[in-house]
Design a protein that fits this description.
Largest sheet: 6 strands, mixed
Number of helices: 16
Helix content: 40-55%
Number of strands: 11
Distance between the termini: 58 Å
Oligomer: single chain
Strand order of the largest sheet: 1-2-6-3-5-4
Radius of gyration: 23 Å
Shape: globular
Length: 432
């Protein structure tokens, strides 16, 4: 019953204007967190992230961060794998870890009455993970199966090929999921070293939302993270030397539908023109059914099953991505239309009405992101990762509203580079 209750309350939605202000809380041991209090429901959500992710995996052990994230909650301290998972289920506690390219993240979701027990379990998972043979080998087998499946997946093959061309020998080129040989080479000692060296107070970011006060949070922070090392191993990766060209790579794969992925240089999250680019991306391909790419590629010509674009930001690289899936016989026309729309936006810009419609959607839909305490905690972590101000939730829509058609068209001319829009196709396209 408690598990059902926790699922129901996490679906509770709040408009942005109903959220309490973001508070910065600093514990006695100097651990900082951003907090939004909400005592409506008896639930506490915490998201946390350590800077430095899969891009730091050692050569020959690609997948270390991913395997660590999948096994850190499979037994810790006095609990073996079954005991740890059974206790989580009995108390309706969620503890999860995840490895990204630039971060190693986790989440805690618990009923307020079980907060002390959940903190004890999370602390133990972070500071005393067992990494025993049975769960490690079980999870390793699952990851290896996933990697083998991805070797047959056209979307995964296209993305990996594109990243290798863009990033060359940079760690970003290998993605964040690891390799078959790398995952196979990881030992329990590697996992234990990861936990001891990569998780520290100095690369920690915390966001909390729910039924907890600042004073309670101070105690929680020290109990959870206070025993971590003061300093983690360096989490910095070298700057990526990105190479783009107006090239096309075709990877032969006997599938009925080809997967297409595009990329060009993107824009930094803290750049003064980020919001005009954000609005432009919505108009070009980020707006789903209302985007230009959807209208021209799917609605008018029926070329694709899906088409989209988005801005991708990493610590050391920024990309502007697009993608589509279509029948092999229609790949060439799809490529031509996407490139034509990219060039048209750069040359002619967009209309005042398109900008107005994009801003209306982007501001109006912002509140939908705050659908649960867990989602709010995740946003608080993301704000800190991106070095956004603590009042971002109040000012974000103002930033979008301030974008003018002139701003968008200026950025379209300066940032869109159809002459350097790379493409990778996986399938058996005809006519190329």
């Amino acid at each position: 019953m408690k598990y059902i209750i926790i699922l129901l309350v996490t679906l509770f939605s709040l408009p942005v204007h109903a959220l309490a202000p973001v508070q910065e809380v600093t514990s006695d041991k100097g651990i900082k967190a951003w907090l939004i209090e909400d005592h409506t429901n008896p639930i506490v959500a915490m998201r946390f992230s350590f800077r430095g992710g899969s891009a730091l995996d050692p050569d020959g052990k690609e997948g270390l961060a991913r395997l660590a994230s999948s096994t850190m909650d499979e037994g810790a301290g006095k609990w073996d794998s079954q005991g740890f998972q059974s206790r989580l289920e009995d108390l309706s506690i969620t503890i999860r870890f995840e490895a990204g390219m630039d971060s190693y993240s986790g989440r805690l979701l618990t009923l307020s009455e079980n907060l002390d027990a959940s903190v004890d379990m999370l602390k133990t998972a972070l500071t005393d993970p067992r990494f025993e043979t049975e769960p490690v080998e079980r999870i390793r087998s699952q990851i290896l199966a996933d990697l083998r499946q991805r070797e047959e997946d056209p979307d995964s093959l296209a993305a990996l090929s594109l990243y290798k061309q863009i990033f060359g020998d940079h760690p970003y080129a290998r993605g964040s999921r690891g390799t078959l040989s790398g995952v196979a080479n990881i030992t329990p000692d590697d996992l234990k070293s990861f936990a001891k060296t990569r998780l520290g107070k100095d690369n920690l970011i915390v966001g909390v939302s729910g039924d907890i006060t600042p004073d309670q949070l101070k105690v929680l922070l020290d109990k959870t993270f206070g025993d971590l090392p003061d300093k983690a191993a360096s989490w910095h990766v070298p700057a990526a030397k990105i190479a783009f060209s107006n090239g096309l790579t075709v990877i032969d794969k006997p599938v009925p539908q080809s997967s297409i992925i595009f990329a060009q240089k993107g824009i930094e999250r803290d750049h003064k023109d980020f919001y005009p680019a954000y609005v432009l991306n919505y108009i070009l391909g980020g707006g789903g059914f209302s985007s230009r790419l959807y209208e021209e590629v799917r609605e008018k010509r029926g070329l694709v099953y899906s088409v989209y674009s988005y801005l991708a930001n990493y610590e050391e690289a920024e990309l502007w991505m697009a993608g589509a899936g279509t029948q092999n016989a229609r790949v060439k026309e799809t490529l031509d239309v996407v490139r034509a729309e990219w060039e048209k936006a750069a040359r002619e810009g967009v209309s005042e009405q398109e900008v107005m419609d994009a801003k209306t959607y982007l501001t109006g839909s912002f509140a939908l992101r705050f659908k649960s305490s867990d989602a709010i905690a995740s946003i608080l972590v993301g704000m800190q990762k991106d070095h956004l101000p603590i009042d971002f939730l109040e000012t974000r829509n103002q930033e979008v509203e301030a974008v003018t058609p002139e701003d968008v068209n200026r950025v379209a001319k300066s940032l869109l580079t159809p002459e350097n829009l790379m493409a990778v196709v996986v399938g058996q396209p005809t006519g190329l």
